[in-house]
Amino acid sequence: MRLQIKDLWVEFHTFDGVVKAVNGVTLDVAEGEILGIVGESGSGKSVATHAILGLVPMPPGKISKGEILFEGENLLTKSEEELNKIRGRSIGMIFQEPMTSLNPVFTIGDQIVEALKIHFPHLNKLEAKQRAVDALKQVGIPSPESRFDCYPHELSGGMRQRAMIAISLVCDPKLLIADEPTTALDVTIQAQILDIINDLREKRKLSVILITHDLAIISETADKVAVMYAGRVVESGPVEEIFSNPKHPYTKGLLKCIPHVDEQSRPKGERLNTIEGTVPDLRSLPPGCAFYNRCSRKIDSCLDKVPYFINCGAEHFVSCINVE
Ligand SMILES: Nc1ncnc2c1ncn2[C@@H]1O[C@H](COP(=O)(O)OP(=O)(O)OP(=O)(O)O)[C@@H](O)[C@H]1O
Ligand SMILES: [Mg+2]
């Protein structure tokens, strides 16, 4: 399995203008690899990954340029019928709003069986149930046989999230796209769910795109990270490298925003760092670097054009013309 997004551009034609949501994004995920995507709200994380499965609503959306190669084939040229064979089968997705993705009027078990039957219609009732129960067990749901008959409202938030993951994994996909899979959960459950994802990567060579606001999650789980800002990847590379040697002023700012429980250096009561300013209006992006107005290292030539990627070490790329 290999997924390559190459120079992807997505825009939304709205009454208020053209929203440039994704502007030349290039990403690469290998087999058994976890790619983390971070960036502020509105930076294009969800839209870029929705494009993989043909889930950008068109109109108002439009993919104006790019290629998305999955195992060598361009998903952007596939028909709806062909995409339906891939969705949930080769590529699983956990959506950002899990509570609204489960149907309240069907039991958890029925919903998993439904997902399974789309791709494995030959399975009989008993076989399908067995696979659904196995999927629930795999995501750490206790007494999965009895949970099979529960409705979503009968489960806790953490259990519902696990059920969502079970649905996305029941067909044994090669790639899982997990959009903020743990945001609504407390830290213990969060850690358990990340463990499950990590475990599947090791046992099944599952590849994962993990979207999160939380850099601490990336540092613990991902192999590589792409930092997005205003619809662009501004820095990418191996996780240890980006965390120990960040180059882009935005990445540096994000890293300074991470709270450390054991942090001795910050006097009590002192506020955590935040990055001043806001993301630019995606309807009127400047010709140069989109981070310019918030950047501590800005120079005049940053205004001229979007900075090229500079290679600053093994697989470490940054889009900035004034790195330290
Ligand atoms: N259907 C749509 N119509 C118009 N604009 C849209 C649509 N969907 C997304 N956008 C815009 O595209 C931009 C990128 O949105 P996206 O959801 O990818 O951000 P995100 O990085 O996932 O943010 P968050 O962290 O809040 O989930 C935003 O400005 C958003 O308003
Ligand atoms: Mg999102």
The number of domains: 2
Q: How many helix segments?
A: 11
The sequence of SSEs as H and E is EEEHEEHEHHHHHEHEHEEHHEE
CATH architecture of the largest domain: 3-Layer(aba) Sandwich
Helical content (DSSP H or I, runs of 4+): 25-40%
Evaluate the radius of gyration: 21 Å
Q: What's the count of strands?
A: 12
Query: Which small-molecule species are bound to the chains here?
Result: adenosine-5'-triphosphate, magnesium ion
Order of strands across the biggest sheet? Answer: 6-7-8-3-9-10-12-11
Instruction: Please identify the structural class as seen in this structure.
Output: alpha/beta
CATH topology of the largest domain: Rossmann fold
Protein model, in words:
This protein is of the alpha/beta class and 324 residues long. It has eleven helices and twelve strands. A hairpin with a 5-residue loop joins β11 and β12. α4 packs parallel to α7 and α5 crosses α7. It starts with a strand and ends in a 6-residue tail after the last strand. The site of magnesium ion has 4 residues, from α1.
